[in-house]
Amino acid sequence: MRAIKFKQNADYFKHGDIHVPSLFLSLYHSIPNAFEFGVNLNKKEFIDEIILEYNVSKTDIIYNESFFVDDEPVSDIDAIIIIKNGFMVATGHADITIYYDSLIEINERQQIIDIAKKSIRHEEKKKYFHMVCRDNGDMYLKDFEIKSHEVELDSHYNDDFLEIDSLIKNSLNDKSKNGIILLHGLYGTGKTYYIRHLINTINRKFIYFPLYMIDAISSPEFLPFITEHPHSVLILEDCENLLMHREKGNMNNNALSNLLNLGDGLLSDALSVNVICTFNANVAKIDEALLRKGRMLARYEFRELSKEKTIELTQKLGKQMIDPKPMTIADIYNLENVDFQDKTQAKIGF
């Protein structure tokens, strides 16, 4: 905020627009004082509140016509509002300016500022994840905005998950920690749902490797690439083929070795990179080196919700069940949808 004084002989008409001090001078035959207040306003809300508070007539408002759509003012409209003799306010790009003569008291100006404070535009902080892409062998990141995602973990997961959630969040919030997080279980049990929740709540760079890029972890370009992104969190979904036992024909030996080094090796000390892996296979098929203490931060098997949890969530969502039983989150959210899965094996005969 700063007070502004206008010169007696200044050129108040510029670029063909209405210049507020000139307007004030022509109306009240005096040069105004001005008080500028920097604020990111919802301008329409502010103007509506001023009209209501001071019973301002439409004839006492001058709008910038470029902010109209179909003869209706839009939210970012600029306007000059005459409140009373010797007292007006104008909205700017990121501020308001109060113009007043010597008869206007400080508390009257403060009232305008208080109205402006109530109309501050609170922009929601956007969250992003970064997908790995490749161009002529070079790896780079493409950013994607992720929608705000609030989850009631207590109602969407079984009771034993809350302790694991706390462990995972504490680990990811500590940038000195690094390691591997394994999330596995049936399809539709909430693995991706939970990862989306982590992206929205943890202040780290989340780097997503799509399935077709998993082999890039074994490429010569991977290590130089990942060194450019310390303290990040790698997301590898449906990556059971990468995590299989190396002694049982794993075709991604080099990729798995790089992954293990990120979890507990020289690279882990230098980069503090965390890795979240999801898969649907039995954990017995996973290379035992991944499960070693010091390398593994957390592991959780997602299952169907218990019968009690299923009933609780369906009631919360306003859905009805004929025969309550343990169900996945996906099945609960899609109770009304047709199930196209074959329930029986068709017999073939003559």
Keywords:
Rossmann fold, disordered N terminus, 15 strands, six-stranded antiparallel beta sheet, 350 residues, alpha/beta, seven-stranded mixed beta sheet, 12 helices
Descriptive overview:
A hairpin with a 2-residue loop joins β9 and β10. This protein has 2 domains: 117 residues; 176 residues, 3-Layer(aba) Sandwich (Rossmann fold). The radius of gyration is 31 Å and the shape is elongated. Strands 10-9-12-13-14-11-15 form a 7-stranded mixed β-sheet, with helices on both faces. The protein is built from 12 helices and 15 strands. The N terminus and C terminus are likely disordered. With 350 residues, it is an alpha/beta fold.
